[in-house]
Structure formats: structure tokens, C-alpha cells
Design goal:
The chain is α+β, with helices and mostly antiparallel strands. The protein contains two helices and four strands, in the order βαββαβ. Strand 2 and strand 3 form a beta hairpin. The longest helix has 12 residues. The N and C termini lie close together (about 10 Å). The relative contact order is 0.35.
Length: about 80
């Protein structure tokens, strides 16, 4: 069974569209939504195991220009 997580993302002012576009191109990202509230974007990610999700977040999502902070919530 695939593991699933929600990545709550804060972006720098004016960088929302760039971040959404970059996220949609990543393997393992199944959906990306701009939202209102304390976070600017929520991405749903899925992978075969938690290591895949961890690597996706730390190696591929964190370096995206325009992201200032993330919080990852694992689905249980």
C-alpha cells in the first residue's frame, strides 16, 4: 500500500504560481492546491514508503525557489 502525506507550504509573497508549477512537475506529487489561511499551498504526495516521501520533501520540495516553510502531515 502506498504511503500518503499532505505538505503544507508557505511561499514568499508573489511566488505562489511558480511554486505550484514546480510542484506539479515532481514525481510523487499527486495534487497541488492553492489555499487560504496560514498556508499558501497544500500538496498531496504519495510513494511506496516513508523514505520516498521523506526524500521527496527534503531533496526535491524544500529547494524549490519561493518556498519559505513546510509542514508535512502523514496520513494514517
Amino acid at each position: 500500500m502506498a504511503e500518503k502525506a499532505f505538505v503544507l507550504i508557505e511561499t514568499l509573497v508573489g511566488r505562489n504560481k511558480e511554486v505550484v508549477t514546480a510542484l506539479m512537475q515532481l514525481e510523487g506529487v499527486t495534487s497541488v492546491n492553492s489555499v487560504t489561511g496560514p498556508y499558501d499551498v497544500i500538496a498531496t504526495v504519495e510513494g511506496d514508503n516513508l523514505n520516498f516521501i521523506g526524500d521527496l520533501v527534503t531533496i526535491k520540495i524544500h529547494p524549490i525557489a519561493g518556498i519559505s516553510r513546510t509542514v508535512t502531515c502523514l496520513a494514517i
